[in-house]
Structures are given as structure tokens and as C-alpha cells.
């Protein structure tokens, strides 16, 4: 035994909280992001996307994620991941809206295309941490506004967006995911970045 300037704790247990963090996605994260995406889609849209989801595998989507991570169209495109310890439990995908995408003159809008948390890891602050980190990056790139879409009737997501300062701007769109799926109606939410 060595002499330490502090007492040795015997039978101490680590705290009950997990280490959580957010960081930019890496190429090696593609499989984990795909796993989170499919788990969330299967939990959120089982009827609407039944046939589509029945055929999709993590490998099917991982290659697309790998490409998005390694070859973004610009430095303003962003993929962040949320971690609980070393496990990826969520992700955020954001990109600048181009002129002609309902962008008002003088506005610089970033579209939060995807903000997804694995269904077993919701309500632990991961979405808030991802969004806060993304807003910091958006501001650094000169964005004045953020926009995102939410499926009509997704009460949890709507509540989250409103609590984060987003408001319904009245825009609607219909997503058709192809044969064997039901159309999804989405509402657009926007927030000023101050």
C-alpha cells in the first residue's frame, strides 16, 4: 500500500448517471447511426412505413451515412452524434437551405433534417444537447434561423420543439415513402437563432 495524500475509498460505487456527450460524426459511426435511425423509424412509424422498414437493414443505410459523413456537400453541412458512455444513442443532421427553398431575402436558414434518438434512450436530454450543439455551429456559420419538420400527431416531438423555442410556421408537406407505405403529413417549425 502506498501513502496517498487522500483517503482510499473502499467499496465505493460509481455514480448512477451515465457519461453523456455530443460530437461530430465519424466514418466509423455509420453503422451505429443506421441502427438508431431504423430503431426510431420502426418505433415511430410501424404502420406508415411497414413494407419499407421490413426490407431495410442497417447495412442498407450505413453506406449512405458513411458517404454523408465523409463527403458532405459543404462545411456548413453537419452530422452530430449523441453518446451515452461510448454508445451512439442519437444523431442530428443539418444543412443550409438554399435560396428558392422558401428562404426570405437576407435570411440564412439551416434545416435540421433529422434529429433522432434511439427509442430506449429518449427523455434523457440527448435531443436537447444535440440541438444546442447544432445551434452553436449554425450561428458560427452565420445562420439566422433554424427550420425542421415534424410528423403531424407526433405529440412528443411537437412538445420538444415548442419547448426548444420552435414555432409552427403554417407550412405543411406530404411525404410518400413509396409502395407499401402510407403518406406522412409533416408540419414545419422554425426558430430564430439569437
In short:
With 194 residues, this protein is α+β, with helices and mostly antiparallel strands.
Describe the model.
It is globular and about 45 Å long. The longest helix is centred in the first third of the chain and has 15 residues, at 30-44. A hairpin with an 8-residue loop joins β6 (167-175) and β7. The chain has one domain: Aminopeptidase (3-Layer(aba) Sandwich). It has 194 residues and is an alpha+beta fold. Mean pLDDT is 85; it is low at 1-15. The protein has 5 helices and 7 strands. The protein is 30% helix and 29% strand.
CATH superfamily: Gcn5-related N-acetyltransferase (GNAT)
Q: Give me the count of strands.
A: 7
- The level-1 CATH class: Alpha Beta
How widely separated are the two ends? 56 Å
Secondary-structure element series: EHHHEEEHEHEE
What structural class results from the helix and strand content? Answer: alpha+beta
Quickly count the domains.
1
Strand content of the residues, in percent?
25-35%
Radius of gyration (Å): 19 Å
Report the principal-axis shape.
globular
Q: Main beta sheet: strand number and arrangement?
A: 7 strands, mixed
- Report the oligomer: single chain
User: Helix count, per DSSP?
Assistant: 5
Amino acid at each position: 500500500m502506498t501513502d496517498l495524500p487522500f483517503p482510499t475509498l473502499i467499496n465505493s460505487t460509481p455514480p448512477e448517471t451515465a457519461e453523456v456527450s455530443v460530437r461530430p460524426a465519424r466514418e466509423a459511426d455509420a453503422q451505429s447511426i443506421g441502427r438508431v435511425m431504423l430503431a426510431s423509424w420502426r418505433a415511430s412509424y410501424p404502420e406508415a412505413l411497414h413494407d419499407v422498414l421490413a426490407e431495410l437493414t442497417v447495412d442498407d443505410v450505413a453506406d449512405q451515412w458513411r458517404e454523408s459523413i465523409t463527403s458532405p456537400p459543404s462545411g456548413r453541412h453537419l452530422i452530430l452524434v449523441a453518446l451515452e458512455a461510448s454508445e451512439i444513442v442519437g444523431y442530428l443532421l443539418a444543412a443550409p437551405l438554399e435560396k428558392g427553398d422558401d428562404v426570405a431575402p437576407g435570411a440564412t436558414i439551416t434545416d435540421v433534417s433529422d434529429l433522432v434518438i434511439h427509442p430506449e434512450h429518449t427523455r434523457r436530454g440527448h435531443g436537447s444537447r444535440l440541438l444546442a450543439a447544432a445551434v452553436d455551429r449554425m450561428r458560427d456559420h452565420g445562420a439566422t434561423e433554424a427550420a425542421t419538420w415534424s410528423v403531424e400527431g407526433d405529440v412528443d416531438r411537437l412538445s420538444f420543439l415548442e419547448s426548444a423555442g420552435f414555432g409552427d410556421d403554417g407550412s405543411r408537406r406530404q411525404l410518400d415513402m413509396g409502395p407499401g407505405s402510407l403518406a406522412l403529413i409533416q408540419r414545419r417549425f422554425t426558430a430564430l437563432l439569437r
